[in-house]
């Protein structure tokens, strides 16, 4: 599920009011792009619109809206000349309550099954309902129309599918990092279904071959088992599929080369090895502590995600 959407749904279902902040328009070198979201509740903040003075002022306005309760929607332009001359951001403020839960839940359900939606919010008439409709294309965008004024945005869950196989210290540490990251993960190991309090974007599974068979095209795979023969046995079907966007095996480059040799002996075409990274994690980090390695792998996955998006 899209992170901010799940958080908002949980807040409203609990009976709490919240202000949904959206960067409706970014001018010049604004710190965040149009469509960036932040949630301001009475006792917490979720997300960020770039920090600094802009965020401080926005949170103050949102908290005032929560206290007063008489301003449901607001558009405001903020100059950013102090940080970046000529830059500005137009922020949309929406005060939401349990009465907004139906459209939030509908949008969340659509996003959960991969349906792209257009959310339309009117700021000329603050009582006008939020509209949810089908999107013509699967690409997130956010547009502020001066007539109305009207905010339209395409909401699509573009989280990257990620399959983590194994439950060693590094895999566990990585799973713990995933909650705020743009991945939709399947964690495959016998113990995964028994681990409590998994991040909302992590689904446990216990059968690796079935998970690999069910994976979508362009998925990422991280093999973090404690068995090199098992790694090779899993790499074989992953690479034979021919549609993996990124594959890494936890361990040394030497282990990777041994796996490559065994795969070649098994008849894997060398051209199918292209998605296989030299090693798991970014280069230049010598510390092998599980938490450090997990952060290194997360950075590598984010880099691979950007490369895939830019290529598309």
UniProtKB/TrEMBL annotation:
Domain XdhC Rossmann, first and last residues per copy: 162-301
Domain XdhC- CoxI: 12-78
InterPro entries: MoCofactor_Util/Proc, Xanthine_DH_XdhC, XdhC_CoxI, XdhC_Rossmann_dom
Superkingdom of the source species: Bacteria
Pfam families the record matches: XdhC_C (PF13478), XdhC_CoxI (PF02625)
NCBIfam families: xanthine_xdhC
PANTHER family noted in UniProt: ALDEHYDE OXIDOREDUCTASE MOLYBDENUM COFACTOR ASSEMBLY PROTEIN, XANTHINE DEHYDROGENASE SUBUNIT A-RELATED
Protein name (Swiss-Prot/TrEMBL): Molybdenum cofactor sulfurylase
Source organism (scientific name): Chitinasiproducens palmae
């Amino acid at each position: 599920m899209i992170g901010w959407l799940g958080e908002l749904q949980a807040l409203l279902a609990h009976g709490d009011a919240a202000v949904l902040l959206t960067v409706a328009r970014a001018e010049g070198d604004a710190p965040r792009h149009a469509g960036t979201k932040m949630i301001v509740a009475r006792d917490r903040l979720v997300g960020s619109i770039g920090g600094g003075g802009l965020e401080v002022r926005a949170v103050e306005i949102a908290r005032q809206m929560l206290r007063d309760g008489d301003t449901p929607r607001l558009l405001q332009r903020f100059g950013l000349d102090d940080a970046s001359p000529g830059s500005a951001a137009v922020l949309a403020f929406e005060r939401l309550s349990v009465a907004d839960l139906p459209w939030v839940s509908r949008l969340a359900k659509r996003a959960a099954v991969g349906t792209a939606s257009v959310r339309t919010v009117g700021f000329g008439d603050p009582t006008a309902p939020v509209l949810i409709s089908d999107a013509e294309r699967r690409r997130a965008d956010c547009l502020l129309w001066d007539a109305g004024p009207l905010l339209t945005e395409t909401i699509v869950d573009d989280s990257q599918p990620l399959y983590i196989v194994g439950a060693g210290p590094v895999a566990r540490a990585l799973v713990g990092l995933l909650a705020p990251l743009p991945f939709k993960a399947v964690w495959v190991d016998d113990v995964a279904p028994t681990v409590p309090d998994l991040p909302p974007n992590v689904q446990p599974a216990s059968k690796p071959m079935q998970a690999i068979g069910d994976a979508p095209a362009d998925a990422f795979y991280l093999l973090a088992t404690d068995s090199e023969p098992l790694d090779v046995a899993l790499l074989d079907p992953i690479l034979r599929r021919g549609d993996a966007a990124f594959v890494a095996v936890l361990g040394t480059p030497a282990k990777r080369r041994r796996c490559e040799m065994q795969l070649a002996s098994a008849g894997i075409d060398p051209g199918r090895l292209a998605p296989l990274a030299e090693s798991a994690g970014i280069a230049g980090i010598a510390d092998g502590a599980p938490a450090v390695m997990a952060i290194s792998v997360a950075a590598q996955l984010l880099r691979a995600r950007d490369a895939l998006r830019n290529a598309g």
